[in-house]
Write a structure and sequence with these properties.
about 0% helix; 2 domains; four-stranded antiparallel β-sheet; about 230 residues; single chain; mainly beta; Immunoglobulin-like
Length: about 230
């Protein structure tokens, strides 16, 4: 079993890998559990080499999880991957079902490969539950945005995933309603994006810091809160 990021590389040890569970669909019995281990794979082979459908991706350095199941008869299994474990605030879970037959290995080609959608978004600023001293107040936003494989985003020459192909911003909500939206721009260091917002009124606020890849709908979100409620 392997787990590959949507529009990215494999979830390797550098991003914590992913937790794999294998269960019997009909009985719910847990048959195997473990973690993908290894590297994220070769960027050129995965991202820059054209191949026909069905042609396996070279995976000599790619993370995987191997299990041997003791079966007496064909079994419909559900394989679930949860990760990346090095970015739990952005982790997702994907699963697939497949029949397995005693004596018939699933090792050819890419084996059983799951695609993990999403983008990893870590909000660095502001800290959540930020209590403002007064209003108006300017809040600095900073976010670390990566592919789910941990691959960096930035200008060509800095990263293989161009920041111009992503939208990064923050939607500001007050009393459950969207009141504003700001753009976060590349901050000069791989995967780092920054922006500012001015709070003008007292109250409680939520900010959903998001990253979005228009070409395929890939997205990720991190949430923080801030407020100004003067003591009466």
């Amino acid at each position: 079993m392997r787990v590959i990021a949507k529009d990215g590389k494999f979830l390797g040890d550098d991003i914590g890998g992913s937790l794999i569970t294998i269960s019997n669909v009909q009985t719910g019995e847990l048959l195997a559990k473990g973690y993908t281990r290894g590297g994220s794979g070769d960027t050129k082979e995965i991202m820059q080499t054209a191949r026909e459908w069905g042609t396996p991706i070279p995976t000599d350095s790619a993370s995987d999880f191997t299990a041997r199941l003791d079966l007496d008869e064909p079994c419909l299994i559900e394989v679930t991957a949860y990760g990346p474990l090095g970015g739990l605030q952005s982790a997702h879970k994907v699963s697939a079902t497949q029949w397995v037959i005693p004596g018939k290995n699933i090792t050819g080609g890419d084996g059983l490969m799951l695609v993990m959608p999403g983008l990893l978004v870590q909000v660095l600023e502001p800290i959540t539950h930020l209590d403002l001293a007064s209003v108006p107040a300017q809040i600095n936003f900073a976010a670390n945005v990566m592919m789910m494989c941990g691959c960096p985003i930035g200008p060509g020459g800095v990263a293989d995933w161009d920041d111009q192909n992503f939208e990064v911003g923050a939607q500001i909500r007050k009393d459950g309603k969207l009141i504003d939206e700001i753009k976060l721009t590349y901050a000069g260091k791989a995967s780092q994006f920054t922006g500012t917002y001015t709070v003008k009124h007292k109250g409680y606020y939520e900010a959903d810091v998001y990253a979005y890849q228009p070409s395929n709908g890939n997205s990720g979100v991190g949430r923080v809160t801030f407020f100004y409620m003067p003591q009466s």
